[in-house]
Design brief:
With about 160 residues, this protein is of the alpha+beta class. The protein is built from seven helices and five strands.
């Protein structure tokens, strides 16, 4: 987000105002901000703190505890590799390693072009189709490292034709 514009501050405050009558509004506020901007940097957490009276430490704790919140911008395509027990046993580490090798990023990182973010996830509840990978919500079952190049290429082609 860089320097936060007055328009962005107003939007964040408006989001906070939506939940003034809620007993515990923080998760709803953070969720709306994450959906609006794609991440929740410290500067935004400070605005939320001033508006709600909730300490920055508490807000930061929530943002860093829940994996669906992010402190940094995510790529256009978020690749989630499940490393839960069933997926791990069926080779998920090799799958995430292959994504990492091809994209030249580690888990939790985003490619320089902003296209891909690679996330290591704990159980996503897809044990029967392990190892499972998700990309922007689309599930890829029984993923094999050999399939990774074609999956990445399909998203690059989609991007090129857009």
């Amino acid at each position: 987000m860089g320097k936060i514009t007055a328009t962005a501050v107003a939007k964040i405050e408006e989001i906070c105002n939506r939940y003034t009558n809620e007993k515990t509004p923080l998760m709803m506020i953070l969720s709306d901000i994450q959906n609006e901007y794609g991440y929740i940097p410290l500067e935004v957490q400070e605005i939320v703190s001033k508006k709600t009276g909730i300490s920055v430490a508490e807000i930061y704790g929530v943002v860093t505890f829940y994996s669906f919140f992010s402190l940094t911008p995510k790529g256009k395509y978020v690749i989630g590799c499940c490393l839960g027990t069933a997926c791990y046993v069926k080779g998920a580490q090799r799958v995430i390693d292959k994504f990492s090798e091809i994209l030249n990023i580690g888990p939790g990182e985003t490619t320089e072009d902003g296209l891909f973010t690679l996330d290591a996830l704990r159980c996503i509840g897809a044990c029967g189709i392990a190892p499972a990978v998700t990309i922007n919500g689309k599930v890829y079952p029984k993923m094999d490292p050999a399939q990774v190049p074609a999956v990445i290429e399909s998203y690059k082609k989609e991007e090129a034709s857009a």
